[in-house]
Amino acid sequence: MGGIKEVEGGVQIKIRVQPRASKNEVVGWMDDSLKVRLTAPPVEGEANALLLKYLAERLGVPRSSLQLVSGLSSRSKVVKVQGMTGEELARRLTC
């Protein structure tokens, strides 16, 4: 799980998004990124908004704890999760 990096105040995670999927789900690790399928289309920020909402629910943290660091218009993204360790993040994603 090389896609998790400890940073000041939390962790950053590399994510590879597949938009327009049949359901929202975490698929698993592919190379150094976590693959996430989302039902939203990749237009007007819909997929980005759904990604942050879905991750917040999955991790059990408020949406305000998540920040899209890079990849605004790309399938490859980096999301910062504040107030969490890399070990805790990995554990919550695999549950």
Describe this structure as you would to a colleague.
The chain has a single domain, classed as YggU-like (Conserved Hypothetical Protein Mth637, Chain: A, 2-Layer Sandwich), CATH 3.30.1200.10. The chain has 95 residues and is an alpha+beta fold. It has 2 helices and 6 strands. The protein is globular, with a radius of gyration of 12 Å. A hairpin with a 2-residue loop joins strand 3 and strand 4.
Sum this structure up briefly:
It contains 2 helices and 6 strands; from the N terminus they run ββββαββα.
Strand content: 35-45%
Rg calc? 12 Å
CATH superfamily: YggU-like
Number of strands: 6
Mean pLDDT: 94
Q: Provide the domain count.
A: 1
Question: What top-tier CATH class fits best?
Answer: Alpha Beta
Number of helices: 2
What is the third-level CATH name, the topology? Conserved Hypothetical Protein Mth637, Chain: A
Provide the helix percentage: 10-25%
Going by helix content, strand content and strand pairing, the class is: alpha+beta
Main beta sheet strand tally, sense and closure: 6 strands, mixed
Morphology call: globular
Question: Runs with pLDDT <50, length 5+?
Answer: none
User: How would you classify the quaternary structure?
Assistant: single chain
